[in-house]
Amino acid sequence: MDAIQAARELGKAIQADPRYKDYVAAKEANDADEGLQKLIADFSEKRQRLQIEMSKEADQQDGEQIRLMNKEMQDAYGDVMKNVNMANFAVVKNALDMLLNEVNMIISMSCEGEDPETCDPHAAHGCGGNCGSCGGCG
Fold it and tell me: Is residue 116 part of a domain?
């Protein structure tokens, strides 16, 4: 089997992993949540308005307006993240990202000459294996 075929097999294995399946389900739940979609649209509109104001020449900007718009945007973001579907999505996306980081580390370590069967992506960065406080591998 060549590297491209192996990558395709790896893609199939990732799609069969429960973390991927949880991610897909959470994404579908987000897409179906009309309340969440309204919150996201509101956040996007506030962000766009702020970007327009901030793109003005410095002497044309209204500092107080920018401060208020930034606060509104942050509040809207908070509302999005408080949504139960979005909160769940963030958790399952993090789990999938951690899986992908580990896969990428194994591939990278293998390309650096380490044994793909025994290389430890956690040890590469002094990882103790407890991902609760981790910012991500590699």
Answer: no
